[in-house]
Amino acid sequence: MKSNLRSIGTGYEQLAAAYLVNMGFQMVAKNQYTPFGEVDIIMEKDGALYFVEVKYRSNQNYGTARDSITSLKLKRLKKSVSYLLKGKYSGYNVYSISFLGIEMQDKELTYDFIDNIFS
Amino acid sequence: MYSKINTAVSWGIEGLGIKIETHILRGMPNHILVGLPSTVIKESKERVRSAIKSIGVKFSDDRIVQNLYPADLKKEGSHLDLPLAIGILACTEVLNGKSFDKLGFIGELALNGDIQPISNVLSLIEGLVSAGISHIVMPYDNRVESRFINNVTIYPYSTLQELVADLASESLKKEVEQEKYDFIEFKRNESEFENDYNEVYGQGHALRAMEIAMLGRHNLLLIGPPGCGKSMIAERIPSIMPPLSINERIELTKIYGVADGETKGMIKYRPFRSPHHSISKIGLVGGGMKVLPGEISKAHNGVLFLDEIGEFKKDAIESLREPLSSGKVQLSRGGRSLEYPSQFMLVATMNPCPCGHFLSKSGLCNCKVQSIKNYMGKLSWPILDRIDMTVLMDAVDLSSELSEGKSSQFIFQRVEAAGDFKRERTSEKMRNQGQQCELGGEFLNQTSIEIIKRYEQKGKLSMRSVVKLVKIARSIADLEQSLIIEKKHIFEAYTFLSAQVMKKFFI
Hints:
The complex is a heterodimer.
Chain A: H1 2-22, E1 26-34, E2 37-45, E3 48-57, H2 71-86, E4 95-105, E5 108-114
Parallel strand pairs in A: 3-4
Antiparallel strand pairs in A: 1-2, 2-3, 4-5
Chain B: E1 2-11, E2 14-25, E3 30-34, H1 39-54, E4 63-69, H2 81-90, E5 103-105, E6 108-109, E7 115-116, H3 121-130, E8 135-139, H4 143-146, E9 153-157, H5 160-168, H6 204-216, E10 220-223, H7 230-235, H8 246-259, E11 272-273, H9 281-285, E12 286-287, E13 292-293, H10 295-298, E14 303-306, H11 314-318, H12 321-326, E15 328-333, E16 336-341, E17 345-350, H13 369-377, H14 381-386, E18 389-392, H15 408-426, H16 428-431, H17 446-457, H18 463-479, H19 487-495, H20 498-506
Helix pairs in contact in B: 1-2, 6-15, 6-18, 18-19
């Protein structure tokens, strides 16, 4: 069951990456694990680093993809990002923690990209 | 997406027009409220969200920022729910592109989208009017009060759903014009008064004093032994108070809207406030965290009755000095400075000595002179100076034949008739006929002036007391509908200065 969910996630993370590359981002890394959690996708654009949290929702019965980002998740994401910025990606001065929601609406995928969710 | 909505907040008993700016930006779902909102206004976020969802509109899951302009003014009140909700809706497709420049909104929202009645509507409407907005959307249940203000167009609504539908189609429904003024004339209803003066036996002197005081709005002090009927007489004051004018009712309703959060209707009767003697200074004159009006402002245009005035806290009584002479009170706290009207008539009672029987026929008093001095000392000269009339009462002798007192209806009508006479006397036409005299009063005849001068030469009256004497004599003459203040009026007025005489004797 667990591996099945993981594979769903991986599938939509690939879709997300493709969508972002299409928007002009450059792929840096995927599924970066830290002691605090995981960062789904890391992208680069105009010298800035984008840490993207990807969320998929097949229906809106339990709220939208945006609603699923809780304060605890934000806290973990922040910690992971600062961990990565101190280590692997210390060369970057400009960064942004972003969100990409993918939702199934009327049998079509819709993308909801929010640049810098901490503003 | 951006919108700007007009509304108002109260500032003392006045209203101030403010604006609510709403900006919806792309971002994680969040609702931010800035511009010094109070806790009540912060809580309105939840009411607004529920109300908008309940009318079937999707609540924006973007980042909503709302700003209350001017940002440095602390804002209070739950009536901002409606403008906050309209501000959000104006940024969405529901009301997109509509202009709300000419409209003002006030109202509290229920979770199901009903628009609830609010307090202090009159001040808020006046605040909007002074900001140049004369078209106001407000709760349906508050429409009665709004009729007292002229030159505004009121759109009363009871649900957000109807309001939004009408705003979207630009067809707001005005208030129905009919019966606009017919309820304003307010009839005195005898059965509404529990007590009547005909239940008072004897004490004709005190009743007479009450009549005079009520006409001239003189402050009155009743001194007498326990059980002689001081409180009984004072408690029946509401049954003889003259009716309120429309402007007085508006002013009082504004004060009560601030002080008590009264949500419905207008004040009908002159207030009669009788706080317990444990009241604090702030409770009496007003103030506190929110700088609310105190008992003296709640008794504006009415009567403040202090039973057993000697038992009140010294600082509370002394704080009445300025309001008693100026008729208003200026309160400052935490950067807020507010003025409340407080033209009240003070009616107080006290015993003449610790045991209460001094000067009484019963002869029960065995208080030492020093303790009587101390007891009288509780009432300071500055306060006593501001009390125009004093009545010394004694227990009624049950063995003698007692006449039933005059009925409240009778006294009320006498006071009313005298009030009409007084208004006519003070009108421009009459004023020119009377010649001014050096004693300050008008229409004093020569004998009266000589009597007053004689009193003064004997050292019985200070200059301030002379002014008081003439004021009381004027009211007595008015009560008899006599233009000239005659000798007998002066003599009767002099009997009401007894407390000063008594206090002077003991100090």
